[in-house]
């Protein structure tokens, strides 16, 4: 009988010790998790502040009125050398093209490094196939040139860089005629709103200011990801871009 009571006491002590250990372990885990959550919130806060600051700076530097020959923003272009080693993951350098906003964004992860005025055709029901802008994810290709002229379309452009079809779809300047003069009527549409009635017919390519087209060609390496969409891309709507 005494032996049985002794066993009960041992079991009871063990149960108390186990309960105490479990309590301490849970509290420790809660504390660790709390610290982790706090760090993540702090990191997200810093990230959001940086995103907001970059956007604000670029809005303030937008060149107005738009000049088809000069850079979209006043001041210097970003130095991309420190970003080019990020080839994969959410820190990589990439290009976002918004048909909705008629803008091209040079991105590093979720950070907008530069904003360019663009002239991009939208895809409506009556848009012919050869005039459609490709939607989706592409990559900058090796094909590029300082200028071209297409006699079948009676127009050309400067500083073109292929992103699809090995030269068929390009980032390029506003259009020029055979004599090397800009086609003013189309150049003036750079960065402007596009409607079904007043669409841009650029055969799927993406037009930029001459300075922007040249900088993109000289600084964005082949294989850089290009995402073209017709959605409003804001902080809480970036998931589809990754």
From TrEMBL:
Keywords: Cell shape, Cell wall biogenesis/degradation, Membrane, Peptidoglycan synthesis, Transferase, Transmembrane, Transmembrane helix
Domain of life: Bacteria
Pathway(s) the chain acts in: Cell wall biogenesis; peptidoglycan biosynthesis
SUPFAM superfamilies the record matches: L,D-transpeptidase catalytic domain-like (SSF141523)
Keyword Magnesium in annotation: no
Transmembrane segments: 6-24
PANTHER family documented for this protein: L,D-TRANSPEPTIDASE (PTHR30582), L,D-TRANSPEPTIDASE YCIB-RELATED (PTHR30582:SF2)
The name this protein goes by in its record: L,D-transpeptidase
Species annotation: Ligilactobacillus pabuli
Lineage start: Bacteria, Bacillati, Bacillota, Bacilli, Lactobacillales
């Amino acid at each position: 009988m005494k032996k049985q009571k002794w066993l009960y006491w041992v079991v009871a002590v063990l149960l108390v010790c186990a309960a105490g250990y479990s309590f301490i372990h849970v509290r420790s885990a809660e504390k660790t998790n709390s610290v982790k959550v706090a760090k993540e919130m702090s990191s997200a806060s810093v990230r959001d502040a940086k995103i907001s600051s970059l956007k604000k700076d670029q809005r303030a530097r937008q060149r107005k009125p738009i000049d088809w020959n000069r850079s979209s923003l006043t001041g210097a272009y970003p130095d991309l050398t420190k970003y080019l080693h990020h080839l994969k993951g959410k820190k990589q350098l990439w290009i976002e093209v918004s048909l909705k906003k008629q803008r091209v964004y040079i991105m590093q992860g979720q950070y907008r490094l530069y904003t360019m005025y663009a002239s991009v055709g939208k895809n409506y029901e009556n848009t012919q196939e050869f005039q459609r802008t490709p939607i989706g994810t592409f990559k900058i290709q090796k094909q590029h040139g300082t200028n071209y002229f297409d006699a079948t379309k009676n127009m050309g452009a400067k500083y073109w860089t292929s992103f699809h079809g090995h030269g068929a779809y390009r980032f390029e300047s506003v259009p020029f005629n055979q004599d090397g003069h800009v086609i003013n009527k189309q150049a003036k549409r750079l960065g402007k709103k596009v409607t079904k009635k007043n669409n841009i017919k650029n055969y799927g390519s993406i037009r930029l200011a001459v300075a922007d087209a040249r900088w993109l060609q000289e600084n964005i390496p082949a294989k850089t990801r290009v995402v073209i969409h017709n959605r409003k891309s804001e902080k809480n709507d970036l998931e589809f871009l990754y």
